[in-house]
Amino acid sequence: MLAKRIIPCLDIKDGRTVKGVHFKNLRDAGDPVALAHRYAEAGADELVFLDISATEQGRKTLADLVLAVAQAIDIPFTVGGGIASVADAHRVLKNGADKVVINSAAVKYPGLINALAAEFGNQCVVVAIDAKQINGRWTVHLVGGKEPTDRELMDWAVEVEQRGAGEILFTSMDHDGTQDGFACSALATLSKRVSLPLIASGGAGTLDHFVDVFQKGKADAALAASVFHFGQIDLPTLKQYLIQHQLPIRI
Questions:
Q1: How many CA atoms are closer than 13 Å to the CA of 138, on its beta-carbon side?
Q2: How far is CA 49 from CA 71, 102, 136, in A?
């Protein structure tokens, strides 16, 4: 069995790491380069960097900051935010990213998934899906959760796989920042619909939530921000706890 991955997430706005609840009420969480270095030293399996205001502001990802973070770590590094073309992806990969995340651009221009997979390989392409339940339906949202679409989570995930993505990063907007646990039921259903590795995001609050997301949610990786940024959970303790629950974890 492949090792389960623990992935801290740096949500970046105006060059700083931020975190909110339900994608709103953002508060400062520190310097992204310092946090990245700390997480790499503490045993994070990967790091995700999301420039959360790039799409809304109609600009490109902060390439210089990507480079600074990449130089501070020695673990796989995934970057997203404002990536809307093969050229955009090439720019962040050249600056040290190992993988790129696309979200809004993937929904608006689905062929971009195919193009990125053809140019860089499937393993380099992560499609993020932000969704919330509306009248019992998991509705996909864009632009940092501000723009609902007519896309449904499960159907869109299937298309994402068919178009050549290497991974899916699913964030439950209903669970984001609540620290009440991941959307394990939706994740378990998603794992039956697609064969891609699933990164779960939204809701981490306790050690048991990470156990649940792997055992009940069938996720391949768990991404979290608040509990790491504000010192509620440290990575070595979390990894030891998961090992105690017979989960395959890298130390």
A1: 21
A2: 14, 12, 31
Residue 207 lies in a domain: yes
Tally of domains within the chain: 1
Interval 34-46: pLDDT, tens: 999 999 999 999 9
- Neighbouring CB atoms inside 10 A of 189's CB total 16
Domain, as residue range, for 100:
5-244
User: Residue 92 — very low, low, confident or very high, per pLDDT cuts 50/70/90?
Assistant: very high
Task: Output phi, psi for 181, to 5 deg.
Answer: 110, 155
Please tell me the distance from the alpha carbon of residue 187 to that of residue 234, in angstroms, as a whole number.
Answer: 24
- Of residues 45, 51, 88, 130, which has the active-site annotation? 130
Residue 86 to residue 120: CA distance in whole angstroms: 9
Round to whole Å and give the CA distance between 33 and 237: 23
Residue 249 covered by a domain: no
First to last CA, the chain: 15
CATH number for 219: 3.20.20.70
Q: pLDDT tens digits, residue range 98-132?
A: 999 999 999 999 999 999 999 999 999 999 999 99
Give the amino acid at 54. Answer: A
28 labelled catalytic? no
Residue 130 known to be catalytic: yes
Contact between 94 and 120 under an 8 Å Cβ cutoff? The reply is: no
> Residue 202 domain-assigned?
yes
Domain membership of residue 180 (yes or no) is yes
> Taking the model in full, what pTM does it have?
0.92
